[in-house]
């Protein structure tokens, strides 16, 4: 977590060494600054090279120090860059592999830059709702040119060094090499050791032939594409400052912009997401070094929509898949759908023909359970009924090899009960994919009471390999996501009872930032699914209160898009949700039948009843140990349920509002005679956090 110093001939080499990406933490900054001062004091040293150990030059700030005093301790990054820039001896950056964020800003403070081809270069701060805060918005436009620099800063996307070296007039890289970059940089440093004055990026001019018109055009484009996110436009204004201001004035404006963005709820949400995504894979009682089981071949039971989508994830990752079905026609339909999905990607230019052929070559099919005997992981994706699951797992228990992981894609059923159908419950786990399984990022990994730790570690690792965000859940009805969404859906139903229309509720939620409101979501998923759950609830939890409006809808056969009618009407072949007079009449009769007193309900109340229902149920899940941490709940909702990213997830949003305010609103909702008052009693964890003045995250 520091930097090493050595001398090669007359060149001092300072190597950043803070794995995994040489984050510029306090110790690394201090050691680098000390290295420059040491080289300055040594008369035998004529030049300095800064490089990075391992697989990166530097990925930027050290995320382990985010929010801690060390992040700002002197020398901070600005101070380090000043030390480098003001060195009396030439400083050459030997850039390789990864050069991002503060790492790129440090290199821009060097007098020269030698890069290895293939190096990924970026200023990704915008993805955290920030702008580069150590001169990136001022130096990159000077070194690379205004337009390409603005594109990099506003998008945050990496570009390979050799592509940037092709930009006309660029002074970002003095040399791009295919060979060892450190050797090339040392040689280059020797060659320029006597050149004076030393070139500084800050002394270059950032020019554009038609700056006013260009930046106005860019404002229109960036503003339209960055709705709900203030950082891209602040980045743009900082880059405009590089053209119109003196360097030091531009730097002050950059720092002011950075400080302002740090305080925005959008940046706080994005930073929360950044850390939540990384911590989700950590399981408190499963050590990081737990040996993993080998997953070289996968079996999937069921060739329907879910089975096919699940199979594609593994085919995409280069893992052979065997799909099992009970009938050849079902297999043929499933394989045809997979082909159609891949062919669509080929037509859109997202997949090359040879990759398509490679993936299909990894796919085999069978009607015989015995053909799954060599699979390392077998995932069932059959009908959501416990008797069907029992039949499948009893057969798997007979044919699967010892040590094979047996996974259920169940979305609500008891994984412990499913495990009990086998003689190997330690090998059974839930792998709840979200539809469409080949697109949606979320994977709920459901840990049974006997699931082995190495099974859990293996499934989390395979989730990463197939590019899913894997979140661990304990066993309960609906796990994390669906248990919470039931309360959200109940509130949506009560809002209809009180006078809202489906489109009013959906518009309020979509204006808040959800990808889709609850009634459009129901029509897309199929209203019959919720109907089946409510019928089960009537037996298992007879005291749970629901609006009967959804049952009346289903009794008319209005199951959603698949039947051309649900909460909305749909034209053949189209997905546009058209308000339905049939539903308006149904709701009017329903309200009359239950003696409902309707009223005007604000968008704010609609949103808060739905979102706080998620929050309160999540607090119960945390109290019960079903979810490990509040940030895991947020990951489930951000990656699986369309919760707006700029709000950080339900728990982050509740923290932003203040948990005291959330509970006050819940107390008001509890007084509503049309609602389920008992539900709004704050979960013990939520009440405790409010009493202690604490937050979820």
UniProtKB/TrEMBL annotation:
Name the CDD domains for this protein. crotonase-like
Check the record and name the Gene3D superfamilies matching this protein. Answer: 1.10.1040.50, 2-enoyl-CoA Hydratase, Chain A, domain 1 (3.90.226.10), NAD(P)-binding Rossmann-like Domain (3.40.50.720)
Subcellular location(s): the record lists: Peroxisome
**InterPro entries in UniProt:** 3-OHacyl-CoA_DH_NAD-bd, 3HC_DH_C, 6-PGluconate_DH-like_C_sf, ClpP/crotonase-like_dom_sf, Enoyl-CoA_hydra/iso, NAD(P)-bd_dom_sf
Task: Report the superkingdom from the record.
Answer: Bacteria
Provide the catalytic activity annotation: a (3S)-3-hydroxyacyl-CoA + NAD(+) = a 3-oxoacyl-CoA + NADH + H(+)
Name the UniProt key words of this record, in alphabetical order: Fatty acid metabolism, Isomerase, Lipid degradation, Lipid metabolism, Lyase, Multifunctional enzyme, NAD, Oxidoreductase, Peroxisome
Pathway linked to the protein: Lipid metabolism; fatty acid beta-oxidation
Tell me the protein's name: 3-hydroxyacyl-CoA dehydrogenase NAD-binding domain-containing protein
């Amino acid at each position: 977590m520091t930097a090493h110093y050595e001398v090669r001939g007359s060149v001092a080499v300072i190597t950043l060494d803070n794995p995994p990406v040489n984050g510029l933490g306090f110790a690394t900054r201090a050691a680098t600054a000390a290295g420059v001062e040491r080289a300055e004091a040594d008369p035998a040293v004529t030049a300095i090279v800064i490089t990075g150990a391992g697989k990166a030059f530097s990925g930027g700030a050290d995320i382990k120090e985010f929010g801690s005093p060390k992040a700002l301790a002197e020398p901070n990054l600005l101070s380090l860059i000043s030390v480098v820039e003001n060195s009396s001896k030439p400083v050459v950056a030997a850039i390789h592999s990864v050069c991002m964020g503060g790492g790129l800003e440090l290199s821009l403070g060097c007098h020269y830059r030698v890069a290895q081809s293939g190096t990924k270069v970026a200023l990704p701060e915008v993805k955290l709702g920030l702008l580069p805060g150590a001169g990136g918005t001022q130096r990159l436009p000077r070194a690379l040119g205004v337009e390409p620099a603005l594109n990099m800063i506003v998008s945050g996307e990496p570009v390979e060094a050799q592509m940037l070296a092709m930009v006309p007039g660029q002074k970002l890289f003095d040399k791009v090499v295919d060979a060892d970059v450190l050797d090339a940089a040392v040689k280059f440093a020797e060659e320029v050791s006597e050149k004076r004055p030393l070139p500084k990026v800050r002394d270059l001019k950032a020019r554009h032939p038609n700056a006013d018109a260009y930046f106005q055009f860019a404002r229109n484009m960036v503003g339209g594409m960055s709705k709900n996110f203030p950082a891209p436009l602040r980045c743009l204004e900082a880059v405009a400052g590089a053209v119109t201001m003196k360097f030091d004035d531009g730097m002050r404006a950059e720092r002011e912009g950075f400080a302002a963005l740090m305080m925005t709820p959008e940046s706080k949400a994005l930073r929360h997401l950044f850390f939540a995504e990384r911590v989700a894979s950590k399981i408190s009682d499963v050590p990081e070094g737990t040996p993993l089981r080998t997953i070289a071949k996968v079996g999937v039971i069921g060739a329907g929509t879910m089975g096919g989508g699940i199979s594609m994830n593994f085919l995409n990752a280069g893992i052979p898949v065997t799909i099992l079905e009970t009938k050849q026609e079902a297999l043929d339909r499933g394989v045809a759908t997979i082909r159609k999905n891949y062919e669509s990607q080929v037509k859109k230019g997202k997949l090359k023909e040879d990759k398509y052929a490679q993936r299909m070559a990894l796919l085999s099919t069978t009607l015989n359970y015995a053909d799954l005997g060599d699979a390392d992981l077998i995932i069932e994706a059959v009908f959501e009924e416990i008797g069907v699951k029992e039949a499948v797992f009893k057969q798997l228990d007979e044919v699967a090899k010892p040590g094979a992981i047996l996974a259920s894609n169940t979305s609500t059923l008891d994984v412990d009960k499913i495990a009990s159908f086998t003689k190997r419950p330690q090998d059974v786990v839930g792998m709840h994919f979200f539809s469409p399984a080949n697109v949606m990022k979320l994977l709920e990994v459901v840990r049974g009471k006997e699931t082995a730790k190495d099974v859990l570690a293996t499934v989390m690792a395979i989730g990463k390999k197939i590019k899913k965000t894997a979140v661990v859940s304990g066993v309960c009805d609906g796990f994390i996501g669906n248990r919470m969404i039931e309360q959200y859906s109940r509130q949506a139903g009560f809002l209809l009872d009180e006078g809202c229309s489906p489109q009013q509720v959906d518009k309020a939620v979509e204006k808040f930032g959800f990808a889709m409101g609850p009634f459009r979501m129901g029509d897309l998923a199929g209203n019959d699914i919720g109907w089946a759950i409510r019928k089960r609830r009537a037996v298992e939890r007879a005291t749970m209160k629901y609006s009967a409006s959804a049952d009346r809808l289903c009794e008319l056969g209005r199951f959603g898009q698949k039947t051309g009618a649900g909460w909305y009407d749909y034209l053949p072949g189209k997905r546009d949700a058209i308000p339905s007079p049939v539903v308006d009449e149904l709701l009017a009769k329903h309200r009359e039948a239950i003696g409902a007193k309707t009223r005007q309900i604000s968008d704010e109340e609609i949103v808060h009843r739905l979102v706080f229902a998620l929050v309160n149920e999540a607090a119960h899940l945390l109290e019960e140990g079903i979810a490990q941490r509040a940030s895991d709940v947020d990951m489930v909702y951000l990656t699986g349920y369309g919760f707006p990213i700029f709000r950080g997830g339900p728990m982050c949003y509740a923290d932003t509002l203040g948990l005291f305010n959330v509970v006050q609103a819940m107390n008001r909702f509890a007084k509503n005679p049309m609602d389920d008052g008992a539900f709004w009693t704050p979960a013990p964890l939520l009440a405790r956090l409010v009493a202690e003045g604490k937050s979820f995250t």
